[in-house]
Amino acid sequence: MPDILTITLNPAVDLATSVKRVVPGPKLYCRSPRVDPGGGGVNVARAIRKLGGRATALVAVGGAMGDRLCDLLAEEEVPTHAVRVRGETRESFAVTDETTGEQFRFSVPGETLGEPDAARLLSEIAAAAPVHGLVVLSGGVAPGLTEEFPQLIQDAIAPRTDKLIVDTSKAPLARLIAQPRSPLLLLRVDQKEAARAAAHAMDMIADSLTFASGLVARGVAEIVVTGRGAEGSVMVTRTGRFLCQAAPVPVRSKIGAGDAFVGAMTLALARGDPPEEALRWGVAAASATVGTEGTELCDAVETAALFQTCSVVAF
């Protein structure tokens, strides 16, 4: 099976806690927090580890909080390639209202990186990219890096592999869509970002199918997946269009669900599974993750069980 490298340009140490009721004004006394390493590529690598695979997590880290993040990854036995950058790695936190079940998620911006940081990252990514392996760029691009940075990563790894999977947002995603270079292996776009890119709402499954089909036709990616929340995920390849329905599970926390999806789908593709089967694994892992508390990710046994309930429909 080919090696997998994940890239996180703006990681975080994630804290998740709960309080009886979230109200403005008085001091709120929370439960003891759960602390996890976080950020898109970090969670992708963690999910792959939980599902029985192995991926190296390349992370841009700084300061004492960056050390803490690396320690947390080591505790989970996730191989880590730390790239030191300026400043301090950020924290993010989530608070669940125990009375209503609502979850409040807070994310602070990461440190603004400079040109030396960008050059160091590209150099180390180029050196770490597995030959003929899979590279996953997941999560936001750190402040200070240009919107074309995902494409610079694509250029940097090209001598070793052309299998780049991307799950990002905002201006870097818009750039990938508007000015594609060589096709990505896979691009995942959530429902909100798809609506932004298409300049209209993704109200119907047909809207997602049309959007994804257009990206494949224009050479943005060989496989395009768009999430549809509780409905599941739409996938378009060069040979087919599919919907995989999500497993019916109670939603406790949405943190990391998209990352678990990418991790499970990446692992399945690395095993040689066809895209339709990889899609089922992705949806099953996402469903398993939303059924967990706080920042916890999917469980292998639960994911395998939910895989049996995730059906794929061709269009």
UniProtKB/TrEMBL annotation:
PROSITE patterns: PFKB_KINASES_1 (PS00583)
Pfam family, one: PfkB
Gene Ontology CC terms: cytosol
Kinase found in the keyword field: yes
InterPro entries: Carboh/pur_kinase_PfkB_CS, PfkB_dom, Ribokinase-like, Tagatose/fructose_Pkinase
Keyword presence, Magnesium: no
Domain Carbohydrate kinase PfkB: 11-298
SUPFAM superfamilies, per the entry: Ribokinase-like
Gene Ontology terms for molecular function: 6-phosphofructokinase activity; ATP binding
UniProt KW keywords: ATP-binding, Kinase, Nucleotide-binding, Transferase
Origin: domain of life: Bacteria
Family in the record: Belongs to the carbohydrate kinase PfkB family.
Protein name (Swiss-Prot/TrEMBL): Phosphofructokinase
